[in-house]
Amino acid sequence: MISEHVPGDAAPGSTTPAPSAAPPPTRQRIADRDFVIRLALALHSYGTPVHRLESAIGEVSAALGLEVSVFATPTAVFTSFRDAGVDDTRFDRQNSGEVDLGKLAELDELARRVIAGELDPSAGAKQVDELVKRPARGRGWKRWAAYGIASAGFAIFFGAAPAEVLWALVLGSFVGTLEGAMVPGRWQQLFEPTGAVLIALAAGLLAATFGTSAPVLTVAGIIVLVPGLSLTQSVTELAQGSLVSGSSRFLGTMLSFLMLGFGSELGRRLATLLVTVPEASMPSAWPLWQQLGAVTLSSMAFAVIFRARRKDVGAIVALSLVTYLVIHAVRPSFGAVFTALVGALVVGCGSNAFARVSRRPSLVLRVPVMLILVPGSFGLRSVLMLVEADVLHGVETAFTMLFLAVALAAGLLTANALVQPRQRL
User: Fold this and answer.
1) For residue 187, is pLDDT > 60?
2) How many CB atoms sit inside 10 A of residue 358's CB?
């Protein structure tokens, strides 16, 4: 039998040499990879938005001479390294944790020192581990007080009476105490609905006893639990092209709204079974100087809740006051959506300018100040209306909430184009 030989093929009887295997990574390469992975996981665990995490890791990797692709979702982080034509992919399953602005600022400083060559990556990885193991600041009575002050501040924004502001302070502090008892732990998933049930029940009992407004106390008491910041973050991620992360975060936010709405309605109905809850009175606006005082105290409370460092509190309060004055001036002439757009533009430009001047992450200011603008109360009120079968007004309020979230995201994106931050976080 005659065999046919195709040009370019190995001759009959010859042996084709196997492609040479890529050399194993050096010890320095392993240390560089280890630092990048640990940094990515730490940033993810402290609530960094996915698009900012990916850009920050890309900047660090480029400085170390690594070719890395990062893909993150709210529940996982993928890191893929390419070295000598060989891919090495790692998958880490973890949930995106609560925001810790102090540790995010420290991680940013660590990354900057490694990029500048002031810190060896192996030493940087050890410092990241030490930072992660260190107990979080701001627990105990300070955190409980911060929850109460934030609730009292929002009660003033809602036009509550002085007595209702005091009760909102008590209810908010109770929510902070409940968080310390249930989070973290096996009851963590029940924290939000349990808090909503108890606050709505207490608000109904207080309304029947002292004539206060049950809806105002309910919303003010659980306002810190409302995931308005997560809603804005999900819309921003979708606008940045992080479709998987943005979609999953958006669905998680909607579930949180439903859980809070269900808990609030259950608490309200329990209260009506026990007492006769009076009709809520019309709210009245507080003077501007008193609203500014509420903004100051609320922004300080959010700085404690998100564990910002003391040296950043002054900048957080200053930007909060400027933002509130701007939206107070714009709101009478324009609608809520345009006001949210302008407010987000002020917050974005201010936080980016702060990042350029102070060499610290813009998130340090952006996260707490955005809660002055966040449309969380609209989302909660829409769910409450739907539960009470007020479908028309519920759907209308829900669409208003979504338009506000889009306006906030558009304002932040415009701010990034006008004033680019010095660093990725």
Assistant:
1) yes
2) 16
Residue 237 maps to a domain: yes
pTM of the model: 0.86
In terms of domains, do 63 and 154 share one? no
Q: Are residues 115 and 164 in the same domain?
A: no
Count of domains in the chain?
2
Q: Tens of pLDDT along 282-306?
A: 778 889 999 999 999 999 999 999 9
String of DSSP letters for 63-113? HTT-EEEEEEETTEEEEEEEETTEEEEEEEE-------HHHHHHHHHHHHH
| Domain, as residue range, for 114 | 27-133
Which residue in this structure is represented by tokens 């921003």? 236
100, 197: one domain = no
For the stretch 47-77, pLDDT in tens is 888 888 888 898 898 888 888 888 888 888 9
User: Do residues 237 and 281 both lie within one domain?
Assistant: yes
Q: How far is CA 191 from the centre of its chain?
A: 18
* 281 has pLDDT over 80: no
Task: Let me know: does 295 contact 325? Beta carbons within 8 Å.
Answer: no
